[in-house]
Write a structure and sequence with these properties.
Elements (H helix, E strand, L loop, with lengths): L2 E9 L6 E3 L2 E5 L15 E6 L6 E9 L5 E5 L4 H18 L6 E4 L2 E4 L1 H10 L2 E12 L4 E10 L4 E8 L12 H18 L17
């Protein structure tokens, strides 16, 4: 492959051809979407697909006309894209602060349902499912199992129960939803590696809505 450097002098036809050093070059299908109008006047480097061909498979902005280096690759391999996505996700996880979602009761910290969900999304939450294992409407008893799947394919499950003994008067009418919220929170804690108990797993808490 041959590398050509020069300043993009002209933006071409509907095929998005570019002109370098009085010669016209056209992108391959892979490089097509990366050829943009704003590149006119930029100093670039292209990699021709083979000797004697004017088709290029790679384009890089090397500097602007003032000579400021950008070193910005316009085409990346799948491996490079995956690496960048992983690094971005890692950075997001580092930046996520759970402090705003912490409730302190009698000197002990608990995380809210909202905080758990946001933490899980930052760590790659893909899907949440739940099903009722047991319910007795007359007695106000419900047991729910929740399953959490992460983007890496790993699965985590948790059980949540709601009974008249572990609900306050305000939450008792919503015992089924509370059981589901508790199950989901438990599964999310397993998925995120958070040892802190959730606020909804206490006797009070919200109904998850």
């Amino acid at each position: 492959m041959t590398k050509i450097k020069g300043i993009v002098e002209k933006w071409g036809d509907t095929k998005h051809n570019i002109m370098l050093d009085d010669k016209v070059y056209k992108p391959t299908e892979q490089a097509f979407e990366f050829v943009k109008k704003y590149m006119v006047g930029k100093r670039v480097e292209i990699t021709l697909t083979n000797e004697g061909s004017n088709e290029f498979s790679f384009i890089r902005i090397t500097s602007d006309q003032e000579g400021t280096s950008e070193q910005q690759p316009m085409i990346r391999t799948k491996e490079e894209v995956k690496e960048q996505m992983a690094e971005t996700k890692k950075q997001q996880q580092k930046e996520f602060d759970i402090k705003p979602y912490i409730i302190n009761l009698q000197g002990k910290d608990y995380i809210t349902h909202e905080g758990l969900l946001k933490l899980a999304h930052h760590k790659g939450l893909a899907n949440i499912t739940s099903k009722i294992i047991e319910v007795n409407v007359e007695k106000g008893v419900c047991i729910v199992q929740a399953r959490v799947m992460m983007e890496n394919g790993k699965m985590f499950s948790g059980l949540g129960d709601a009974t008249p003994q572990n609900l306050n008067a305000m939450i008792k009418p919503h015992f089924i939803r509370m059981a589901e919220t508790r199950a989901i929170n438990r599964a999310l804690r397993f998925a995120t590696g958070l040892g802190m108990c959730s606020f909804d797993e206490l006797g009070g808490g919200s109904d998850g809505n």
